[in-house]
Sequence to fold (161 residues):
Amino acid sequence: MLISQLGWFIDVYGHAWHYSTPASLLTMVLLMAHVYRTRYQREWLLMVILLMIGWVVEFLLLRSHLIIYVGTAPNSLWPPIWVLLLWPLFGILLPVWQQKMTTLPWQILMGFLCPLAYAAGAHAGAAILPHPAYDFCMMSILWSCLLPALLGLSRHFSLAR
Fold:
């Protein structure tokens, strides 16, 4: 869990402070160290799937103009690498959350709060929320559906710690 939080801080603030490449490389090293250390053989597969899901979600957020990542072209089909790396980092938390959030209402409520990470990234200077209240509400609706599905995916891989 510490690796996930540390990776988020390094990745987001590294981009905000104009050190995207070193921050992304360090984040990849943290991810590889975690996968190397884990006792679960299939966790790397979950991380790859989350990377693909993350690309779709971030693409939709970019195309709907709910978020603008600083330094990214407005019509880019690819979210920045540093953003995509946040998804496997998030995957490290899923087995932990899976044990704590056992009921659907709790998962939906926590999903509704997940966009606080986007707001923190915007506050750090790595992203812009063009219409903060609207953007946060739309992302909250998305994440209140997405988090239970991602927890189900983690459960499918039997990764609870």
